[in-house]
Every structure is written in C-alpha cells, then in structure tokens.
Amino acid sequence: xxxxxxxxxxxxxxxxxxxxxxxxxxxxxxxxxxxxxxxxxxxxxxxxxxxxxxxxxxxxxxxxxxxxxxxxxxxxxxxxxxxxxxxxxxxxxxxxxxxxxxxxxxxxxxxxxxxxxxxxxxxxxxxxxxxxxxxxxxxxxxxxxxxxxxxxxxxxxxxxxxxxxxxxx
Length: 169
What we know:
mainly alpha
C-alpha cells in the first residue's frame, strides 16, 4: 500500500505504529498465499527500513528485516508464526522503550530517591526478563543473531540503570 513516508512524525511511537500496520498487512499477504502480495509486503518492509531514521530506528529496522525473512519461509504456517513473533517483539520493544523513556522523563533536576530506586528496580527486572528470554531461545535459524541483539539490549538497559544509579548517588 503506498504511504506518504514524509508525513510520519520522527518519533519512535509514530514509526512503531507504521511498522505495526505494515506487519498486519504482511500477515494478510502471507495468509492470502498470493506471491505478488507477499513480494509487495517485503518491498514495504524494505521501504520502512530505508525511510526510518530516528534514534530508535535500529530495533524497528531489525524487526522489519526479520519479517522480510519470515515471508520467505517455506510454509504459510511458519511465516505466520514468525510474523506473529515479530509483532510480539515490536510490542515488547515498545513497552521497554516506553518504560525506559517514561522513567527517564520523570527524573529531573530534583530527582527523588524513591523514584530513582523504582526506576533502577524496573530496569533490573527488564535485564532479568531479557536475560531469561535470551537464555530460553532454542537453537535454529537466526537464534544466534537474536541472542546477540538481546545481549546488546541488556547492555543498553544496564548502561541506563548505571546512569540513574550515578545520579541517585
């Protein structure tokens, strides 16, 4: 479906919403069994990767790239499961970013100790959850790449947690 890429706000939420819509369209294309629609869905995902350019684009681009690969899977069932997984990844990523940015937005020049502790606890919980997810990934196509990306996410969340701990003193 043609879309006006220039009208998309340069925010994580706007680009995540567009990716969510494209993933829905891709699921419909795969379900239809129509090769032309599948190719069009892949082209739309590639266009998304080429056009997204905000600071949060990397995780969204990775999800789009994985969805492109999912469309190529041999069976419709595999592709639908993969696309459903990408949708879950997007939702989880959106929640994590919202939690992190929401936590950081509330921290101001007059940070209260209890808010800093709550943010640290939330980030520690996020690290544990992501670690559990990473450790629970079965071997298979793309598993090592996903583990590497999750390890990077863990390191990024730990960096943010350490910054907050430094501010808290």
